[in-house]
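Hi U.,

Before I forget, here's the chain from the pilot set. I'm dumping it here mostly so it's searchable later in email.
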Amino acid sequence: MTPGQIIILVRDVLVLGALGFVIYRIYVDGENRVRQQDMQAVEKQLATNTLEQRQWAQDIRDAEAKRIEDMEHVSAAIAAQRAPVIVRVPAGAGTMPRASSPPATGTACPRGPAEGPGVDIRPALNALEFKYERALADCRAVLAEWPK
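Structure:
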């Protein structure tokens, strides 16, 4: 090989090396650009998620406070009900009728309120009302916690 051919060969190798280096840098810079855009999108999504989680936590606190307030109101209203609800068992019947509706006169016994011993069912009514009002307050609290 002549010195001119060696110089041309070295020049060609350097040009190919430089071209390969430029192609490699373009490829790597393109990857970095995509990674930076992806990271910016992820950071934006994380910020949005953080705000949503804060709002959900506030909604949960508000719902729990409202449930407690509702339960205090219901408890006070139920505790204020002191008037007895007397159910009279007909004389000689021994047991109360199962699924009979009260007559149009407003008494629980068709023979009249004076016959048979009376049973005050106010405590049972209050307990039943409290039980279902608590369940309704819990349902309202769950719905209030639901993300909007």
